[in-house]
Amino acid sequence: MTAHNKKIYKNLVMHSVSNDPDKAKAEWSLKTVIDGSNMCMVCGHRIKIEVWLVNKNNGNTLCVGSICAEELLSVRETYVMLDAIEMAKKKAKRKRDAIKNAKEMDAMRIKSGHEQLRGGALIRLTNVEWVEHLISLGKL
């Protein structure tokens, strides 16, 4: 057993009912997978995708990285986890893309004058006015 695995099992046993690493490992199952930036609670490494495990015997939860989760979960649960990780990555990418698109749209609005002076007052255009304005500029 590597030093890394010893650390994993030592920390796992601390949150388990059993003191035997193999029996402690059997107590845990996959709870959820989310995009995040936490620290693995069993090895201490920084993780991008949080895999949350739940102990079936005492209800404790652990946030671990995918490598530690693969070490601790059954083969079936590992496949479920890998699918969930892919879904979390896709969701994170959609979120990043939406933020990027919103920033680009804001920059376009500022550049093309989304706000206009009307009757001496600065007003924001409605969405319909905004689209009409972009059409008039030949941008749509």
Q: Could you explain the architecture of this structure?
A:
The chain has two domains: 3-90, no CATH class; 100-136, no CATH class. 52% of the residues lie in helices and 24% in strands. The radius of gyration is 25 Å and the shape is rod-shaped. The N and C termini lie far apart (62 Å). The chain contains five helices and five strands; from the N terminus they run H-H-E-E-E-H-H-E-E-H. The model has no long low-confidence stretch (mean pLDDT 76). A three-stranded antiparallel sheet has the order 1-2-3. It has 140 residues and is of the alpha+beta class.
Q: How would you summarize the topology of this molecule?
A:
Layout: H1 3-14, H2 21-26, E1 28-39, E2 46-55, E3 61-64, H3 66-72, H4 75-112, E4 115-118, E5 121-124, H5 127-136
Antiparallel strand pairs: 1-2, 2-3, 4-5
Brief summary of the model shown:
The protein has 140 residues and is of the alpha+beta class.
Question: What attributes characterize this protein structure?
Answer:
5 helices, 2 domains, alpha+beta, three-stranded antiparallel sheet, 140 residues
The structural class is: alpha+beta
Helix content: 40-55%
Radius of gyration: 25 Å
Walk across the major sheet and give the strand order.
Answer: 1-2-3
Please report the total strand number as a whole number. 5
- What number is the mean pLDDT? 76
**SSE string:** HHEEEHHEEH
Shape: rod-shaped
Number of helices: 5
Count of domains: 2
Distance between the termini: 62 Å
Largest sheet: 3 strands, antiparallel
What portion of residues belong to β-strands? Answer: 15-25%
Which residues form runs of ≥5 with pLDDT under 50? none
